[in-house]
Design goal:
Shape: elongated
Order of helices and strands: EHEHEEEHEHEHHEEEEEHEEEEEH
Strand content: 25-35%
Radius of gyration: 22 Å
Structural class: alpha/beta
Oligomer: single chain
CATH class of the largest domain: Alpha Beta
Low-confidence stretches: 90-94, 137-142
Largest sheet: 5 strands, parallel
Length: 253
Amino acid sequence: MIRVAIVDDEPLAREGLRLWLADEDDVAVAGEAGSPAEAVKLILRERPDLLFLDVQMPGGDGFDVIEAIGGEHLPEVIFVTAHERHALRAFDVSALDFLLKPVREDRFRAALAKARRELKRGEAREGPARLSALLDHLRAPSPGDGPRRIERFAVRSRGRFVIVPAAQVRWIGAAGNYAELHTALGSHLVRATLAELEAGLDPQHFARIHRGTMVRVDCVREVIPATHGDYDVVLEGGETLKLSRRYRGRLLA
């Protein structure tokens, strides 16, 4: 059963979606909300699988809702808006889908079918990566401000997806086609190579210290000479990592 939440400040808009959803045997409406604040409470309480989310509402917008719940629960999201510019923004950040008001039933059915297919993919679904991209987009730099940096990771933890801010990552180790993020609370695997992360993370905060290791610079407590020109890097938490001669200049700089 797909549990759905509807968030829209217009009662008639909520009613229309609710009536269409009533025709779907595999869908149950978990709740409705008419404001961003109510939406956050509803989503964290009911933990729906799918969210129909209005963009423009009194007291905030749908993007505020996503940012507020991102670290706790990541449903699939279909944006609903009366303004095409908002729809284009949602599309730009790779939302699952968006519906322009007044919503046509055929577009609604198509969006729901897309959500159904994505949810059936289980752990392989792309929703967390999409919402992680959306969250990054919210704080994206303006043109001319330089490249967009990775600010957070969507990781699977205890049967759910959570957001891990890059600022909480102390060091990163290579694990084949994956990278292992180490935080003060534990470790997480993400599907990315160390080279990809090195290109995406802010070089002011992260430095490669070995072909298989990156470190957050402000977590480094000591750099101790070892042997053959290598060094030991001691982190604030007591972990000791190898700094190879090849990467020594990057860290010391």
